[in-house]
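Quiz preparation item.
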């Protein structure tokens, strides 16, 4: 797992614990100081492919779950 993947996974886990739902890609990008939400999306897709994250229905917002 890359450094950014680890940061994103930890951020999502902490956010869900605190708020009860997952953050948006833009919130992740802003809080972790990424250049764009598309960078966050790419990292999250890699984490999904690695089996670390699960995403709900394609059209659902804030549907990420840490596995």
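Solution:
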């Amino acid at each position: 797992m890359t450094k950014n993947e680890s940061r994103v996974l930890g951020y999502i886990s902490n956010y869900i614990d605190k708020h009860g739902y997952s953050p948006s890609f833009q919130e992740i990008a802003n809080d972790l100081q990424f250049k764009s939400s598309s960078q966050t999306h790419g990292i999250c897709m890699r984490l999904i492919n690695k089996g670390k994250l699960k995403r709900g229905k394609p059209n659902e917002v804030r549907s990420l779950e840490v596995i």
